[in-house]
């Protein structure tokens, strides 16, 4: 690639069969920067300024690329550190209202900004305004009005909706911002055929499933579930043995009395 004229080379630190839930292999990168004369950019599991500093120190890469980290919390680029995720969400919603962003896109983006089992975000140790809102709450919304209201921005949305409606009226536009939100049915998203019950993860195709079951995270989850099952079985067996032993003791005591 360098000989072909690439100005820089980005390396995604996962193999083709691995999924985002699998850990990125930063340890595979250190040999590459010294072997190339163009900048090498690391990608994978980078969410904070601390991650950026650590991956550059451990790998020697010139820079990084961030995808999911920026979706989860765009303030990952701040040298001062991350802003509370609820603050990011409210600012994003304001921009969405000001630009008349489509409901489905806003809904998806907000879902990625909230802590969940698929988002590498820790639940904050302090109480934040609107931190009671969860991914299922967002999933249940069917309109911008419902979604904005969850974060106390219903009036903000109404203000810009009215502005767009007035502008549409001036232009004699019969569809657009002044039209009511379409009812959005996302029940089709949960496809049991491609849903991993062990990991609680929705996949999208047979290929996704095939790749997912090969991943380390999925196998680790199965081992954990198997261990829990064995432990529960042992505890149940111990309880039965204890009951049986108690019954034998009672029988022996009665025999002695007779």
From TrEMBL:
InterPro entries: Aldolase_TIM, DUS-like_FMN-bd, Matrin/U1-like-C_Znf_C2H2, tRNA-DUS-like, Znf_C2H2_sf, Znf_C2H2_type. It comes from the Eukaryota. Residues 196-218 form the C2H2-type domain. GO terms for cellular component: cytoplasm. Pfam families: Dus. SUPFAM superfamilies: beta-beta-alpha zinc fingers, FMN-linked oxidoreductases. GO terms for molecular function: nucleic acid binding; tRNA dihydrouridine synthase activity; zinc ion binding. This is C2H2-type domain-containing protein. The lineage of its organism: Eukaryota, Sar, Stramenopiles, Oomycota, Saprolegniomycetes.
């Amino acid at each position: 690639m360098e000989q072909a004229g690439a100005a820089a080379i980005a390396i995604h630190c996962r193999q083709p069969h691995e999924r985002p839930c699998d850990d990125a292999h930063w340890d595979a990168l250190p040999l590459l920067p010294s072997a190339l004369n163009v900048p090498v950019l690391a990608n994978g599991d980078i969410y904070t300024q601390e991650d950026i500093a650590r991956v550059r120190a451990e790998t020697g890469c010139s820079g990084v690329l961030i995808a999911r980290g920026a979706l989860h919390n765009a303030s990952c680029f701040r040298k001062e550190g991350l802003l509370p995720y609820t603050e990011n969400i409210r600012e994003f919603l304001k921009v969405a209202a000001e630009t008349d962003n489509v409901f489905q896109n806003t809904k998806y983006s907000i879902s990625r900004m909230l802590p969940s089992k698929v988002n590498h975000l820790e639940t904050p140790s302090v109480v934040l305004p609107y931190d009671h809102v969860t991914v299922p709450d967002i999933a249940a919304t069917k309109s911008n009005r419902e979604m904005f209201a969850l974060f106390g921005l219903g009036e903000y949305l109404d203000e810009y909706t009215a502005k767009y409606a007035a502008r549409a009226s001036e232009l004699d536009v019969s569809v657009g911002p002044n039209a009511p939100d379409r009812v959005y049915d996302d029940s089709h998203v949960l496809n049991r055929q491609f849903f991993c019950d062990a990991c609680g993860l929705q996949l999208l195709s047979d290929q996704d499933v095939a790749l997912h079951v090969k991943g380390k995270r999925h196998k680790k989850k199965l081992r954990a579930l198997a261990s829990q099952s064995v432990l529960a079985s042992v505890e149940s067996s111990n309880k039965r043995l204890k009951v049986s032993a108690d019954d034998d003791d009672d029988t022996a005591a009665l025999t002695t009395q007779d």
